[in-house]
C-alpha cells in the first residue's frame, strides 16, 4: 500500500479569515471527499487519535480526503471567546463555498463526495441549496447521524435536548459568553451563542429559513434535483440522531436516490452504535466503513459511465 500523505491547507474565506483543512491521500488523483463536522465537534471526529477514522480509511482506499475545521472550531480562527459571534449564515454563505472552491482548485471539473456528521450535514445541505450550481458536481452525499428537526419524545430527549441543550445551555451561555460544550463533556468544541441559537431555531420544526436574510431553503429545495445520499444512524443514538429523525431529514430533499441504514448489532454490526462512535470506534472500519466505501465506488462507476455515454 502506498504511504499515507497528510498535510495542512489554508482555505481562504475572506481577507481576514482562512480555515484549516487537513488533506489525507495515498493517491492525490483519487476522487475528492470533503468532510464537515458537527456543531460542538471539530475535524477530529473524522480523524480520531486511535487512527481508525473515516478520513484515513478512505484515503487508504484511494480517495483524496479534505477534512475541514469550520470557523471557530478546531484549529480554525477565530478563537472562540465571549463576544465572538459565529452564525449559521457565516458558515453556509462563506465557509462552505470557500471549501467547495478548494476542492475545485485541486480537482478542477471533477465530481466529488461530501460527508457530514450531525449538524454538519445540515450546514452542508443548506450551502448546496443556496449554491445549487455545485449539485451537478456532487457524486454523492454521506450523512452520519444527521437530522434537522428533532421530533422524537421520551425522557432522554426531554432531558438532553429540550432541557439541557435548549434551556440550560443558553442560560450558561449568557453567563459565560459562549456555550461551554467542551467543559461539560458534551462536545470537543465550545459553540458560539449565535450559532447555538440558529441551530435551535432550525431544529424545532419551524420553517427552514435563514435567520439573517430570510432565504427559504425548503422552497428552493422544491426546485432542485438532489444528489444520491447515504444516511446512517446508530441504534444507540437515542436523541441526537435518532433513526426516525434521520429518515425525516432525508425526505426533506424530495425524491432522490437515498439509502438509509440503521447501525445495530446483529445486522452486520458488532455493536449498537451511538452518535459519535459510529465514526470514532475502531470497529467501525470493519462494520460499516466498507459499506460506505462500496456505495461511493458504485457512484464513481456510475458517474464514469454517464460521462462515457455523453
From TrEMBL:
Where does the sequence pass through the membrane? Answer: none
Domain Serine aminopeptidase S33, by residue range, is 32-148
Keyword Hydrolase present in the record's keywords: the answer is yes
Among Pfam families, the record links this protein to:
Hydrolase_4
Recite the UniProt keywords alphabetically.
Aminopeptidase, Hydrolase, Protease
Q: Which domain of life is it from?
A: Bacteria
Can you name one GO molecular function term for this protein? aminopeptidase activity
Q: Which PANTHER family match?
A: LYSOSOMAL ACID LIPASE-RELATED
**Protein name (database record):** Serine aminopeptidase, S33
Organism, as annotated: Halopseudomonas xinjiangensis
User: What broad taxonomic lineage does this protein's source fall under?
Assistant: Bacteria, Pseudomonadati, Pseudomonadota, Gammaproteobacteria, Pseudomonadales
Amino acid at each position: 500500500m502506498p504511504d499515507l500523505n497528510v498535510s495542512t491547507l489554508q482555505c481562504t474565506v475572506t481577507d481576514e479569515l482562512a480555515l484549516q483543512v487537513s488533506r489525507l491521500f495515498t493517491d492525490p488523483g483519487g476522487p475528492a471527499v470533503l468532510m464537515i463536522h458537527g456543531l460542538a465537534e471539530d475535524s477530529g471526529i473524522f480523524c480520531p487519535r486511535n487512527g481508525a477514522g473515516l478520513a484515513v480509511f478512505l484515503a487508504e482506499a484511494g480517495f483524496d480526503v479534505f477534512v475541514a475545521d469550520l470557523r471557530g472550531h478546531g484549529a480554525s480562527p477565530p478563537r472562540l471567546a465571549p463576544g465572538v459571534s459565529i452564525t449559521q449564515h457565516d458558515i453556509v454563505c462563506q465557509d462552505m463555498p470557500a471549501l467547495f472552491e478548494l476542492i475545485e482548485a485541486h480537482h478542477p471539473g471533477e465530481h466529488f463526495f461530501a460527508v457530514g456528521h450531525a449538524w454538519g450535514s445540515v450546514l452542508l445541505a443548506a450551502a448546496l441549496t443556496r449554491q445549487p450550481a455545485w449539485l451537478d458536481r456532487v457524486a454523492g452525499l454521506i450523512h452520519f447521524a444527521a437530522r434537522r428537526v428533532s421530533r422524537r419524545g421520551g425522557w432522554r430527549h426531554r432531558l438532553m435536548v429540550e432541557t439541557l441543550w435548549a434551556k440550560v445551555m443558553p442560560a450558561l451561555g449568557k453567563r459565560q459568553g459562549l456555550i461551554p460544550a467542551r467543559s461539560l463533556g458534551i462536545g470537543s468544541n465550545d459553540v458560539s451563542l449565535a450559532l447555538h441559537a440558529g441551530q435551535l431555531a432550525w431544529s424545532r420544526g419551524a420553517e427552514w429559513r435563514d435567520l439573517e436574510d430570510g432565504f427559504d431553503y425548503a422552497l428552493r429545495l422544491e426546485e432542485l434535483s438532489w444528489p444520491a445520499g447515504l444516511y446512517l444512524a446508530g441504534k444507540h443514538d437515542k436523541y441526537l440522531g435518532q433513526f426516525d429523525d434521520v429518515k425525516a431529514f432525508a425526505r426533506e430533499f424530495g425524491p432522490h436516490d437515498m439509502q438509509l441504514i440503521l447501525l445495530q448489532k446483529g445486522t452486520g454490526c458488532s455493536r449498537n452504535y451511538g452518535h459519535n462512535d459510529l465514526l470514532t470506534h475502531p470497529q467501525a472500519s470493519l462494520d460499516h466503513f466498507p459499506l460506505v466505501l462500496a456505495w461511493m465506488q458504485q457512484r464513481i462507476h456510475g458517474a464514469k459511465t454517464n460521462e462515457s455515454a455523453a
